[in-house]
Amino acid sequence: MHDIWNPWHGCKKCSPGCQNCYMYFLDEQRGVKTPSSEVHKTGNFRYPLSKDRSGNYKVKSGERIRVNMTSDTFLEEADEWRDEMWSIIRKRPDVIFWILTKRPERMADHMPSDWGEGYENVVVNITCENQEAYNKRILYLLDLPAKHKGICCAPLIGPIKFDYRSLDGQIEEISVGGENYGSPRPCRYEWVKGISDECEKGHINFCFYETGTNFWMNGINYYMPSKQKQSVEAWFSLLNLYQHYYDVDFTT
Question: Which among 66, 199, 101, 2 has a CA at the least distance from the CA of 208?
């Protein structure tokens, strides 16, 4: 990921994965006056279209940008702004927009009118923190027409078992990260390896990007408050798999 675009900020907790949400924690740490539960449009709303003094886009062609990392793209409170968000995405077909949601049941009714089989430059992801969340959300993702789909298992707070064949060849990447804020719940090596093994069988990209603060392996709790160390340890786990890349045609 190269950049983040938060067209709106604030969210409503909706599942166990939200318990120690980093957005709430960091807002409180920074002394943000607006409550994190109050959803509001940000001053950065048109960021992908912003240019530098030379007239060049600040977000460069070919970059992959994460959308609404301090909210949820399909949050009900943001319905009035979403069409404008899609309009901005249409104007930057040369940028990959990585969209993540815990509310996949709302996706089908809130895609743009010209979505069709999906935008070539949009990757639609669901987040799943445990088996219950995965079972609840995966069918909505598989039923949605989209050119690129992924799953983000973060914060991973329980094992998730799936058969890669049940994903019908639709999922291009699965990413995993542990929990870090509040009272971080443990992430276990065997949970991560189980997902990595299924990705290897299904030729799905797998990204283990951070262990979380409390990472358990071989019965030992490795306490790692440093996110940099978490990323290094996740990389050296040898579980990451990059078997193919997003095939996006930026010439259209």
Answer: 199
What backbone torsions phi and psi does residue 198 show, to the nearest 5 degrees? -65, -35
Distance of alpha carbon 36 from alpha carbon 26, whole angstroms: 10
Compute φ and ψ for 145, nearest 5 degrees: -70, 125
| HSE, side-chain direction, 13 A CA sphere, residue 54 | 3
Q: Indicate the pTM of the whole model.
A: 0.92
pLDDT tens by residue, 137-180 = 999 999 999 999 999 999 999 999 989 999 999 999 999 999 99
3-state secondary structure of 155: coil
Element (H, E) at 152: strand 148-153
Report the alpha-carbon distance of residue 244 to residue 204 in Å, rounded.
8
| Spatial contact of 104 and 144, defined as CB atoms under 8 Å apart | yes
Report the distance separating Cα 189 and Cα 26, nearest Å. Answer: 27
Q: Where are the alpha helices (DSSP H) in the chain?
A: 22-30, 79-90, 131-143, 189-202, 227-235
Longest CA pairwise span in the chain (Å): 56
CA distance 178 to 97: 23
